[in-house]
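Appendix B. Worked example

We walk through a single record from start to finish. Start with the input: the chain for Dipeptidase, Paenibacillus whitsoniae, length 463.
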Amino acid sequence: MLESVLTHLQAHKQTHIEELKQFLRIPSVSALAQHVPDMARCAEWVAASLREAGLEHVDIMPTDGGHPVVYADWLHAPGKPTVLVYGHYDVQPADPLELWETPPFDPVIKDNKLYARGSTDDKGQVLLYIKVVEAFLKTAGSLPVNVKFCIEGEEEIASKHLPAFIEKHQERLQADTIVLSDTQMQSLGKPALMYGLRGLAGFEITVDGANSDLHSGLFGGAVQNPIHALTKLLSSFHDEEGRVAVKGFYDRVLALSDKERESFKQVAPDENKVRTDLQVSGLYGEQGYSFYEQTTSRPTLEITSVSGGFQGEGIKPIIPNRASAKIACRLVAAQQPEEIMDAVEAHIHAQSFPGVTIQLDRQLYGNPFITPIDEPVMVAAAEAYEATFGEWPVYTRSGGSIPIIEVLGRVLNAPVVLMGFGVPGENLHAPNEHFHLENWDNGTATIARYWDKLSAISFGEKV
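Next comes the structure step. The output line below is what the pipeline stores for this chain.
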């Protein structure tokens, strides 16, 4: 079955690329109101493509005030796992247009790269899965696994309506595992499995003093200065070794295994080059961890802005009545944003700051995500990559946050596999975005092999 599928994909590659060009010509920019009709047209295009591939129950499903989700399924493999394919059909704005070498919504192939907005993020990678389904159904008449699709239109605007959609349609979306291709390989020809993303807790601290700004000559030295109190508080958040000094901050952190730390050495950047590129005299962070570990796999507390007092030209000799700071904590499995902000608030109340009141305003929440690398679905993905690329993928984690991935895994109680076929330097979110077409071949082959390997995995009853 598998060989005939791979042969079909090769034989119809040019037709599939032409269809991808059609997909890319639709300016489905979710962030701009002027493109609302294009978003609807793009959802219709995705639905038609899913129907053409042989999927059933194709449905353009509304969200509560946002762009629609396109759903489809094929559920005729009794006793086999069910895979939910997640992706998105919306794209970033093309600005600045003057920096594009070719029109952003008029796809062009140069040097075996397809240039267009959305080519790598995420239309090219979404269509890979649809064409693999089509190849299986046209050659074998069946799939080795059951498949569902959930293709949203708001990923580029933080998936703001999707969490509620997933909760509402949990039963329909239920699956044994989830897969998406919206990440990158290590480099061209070198696969990578990203298995962890950091979460986020963002808040603002406000320190209030007197009921108005005060003359520093009349009141200085006798009335608490909110900036003094704030800077003392901020300096208490870290110890001399770069660790966060908030009690309980590290309580839930999962320790890195020797296997993980060894794998990171294959992808870690040259720290001297990082220092040189950033033009800093030295790197600084939690001791005992590499730069890569510090920025992907350890939690942080970063002060992102501080404000207070007169900010104009010259000096205004006052005691300001208010000072504030904004803070972003990047979290790792299994930390929880609410607990971290509770711990920070307790840390604040444990300090002594007479003459001021301090408030913490909680603003950003995002749980961290991780799928252990020895999870059977991860092993199957690694084996599929190896069969296609001739080498085992490296394991990576990201310092950034994609909260919807954690939501999918948690609500559906299913492991998530990030199986990317993008390549660093493909300019996602930037002018001249492109997709290496050799990864069209490699991507479809890897997905086909992955589903074939998944069919042998037994999933127990969910609790």
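Two observations about the output. The chain has 15 helices and 18 strands. The domain at 199-253+299-366 is CATH 3.30.70.360 (Alpha-Beta Plaits).
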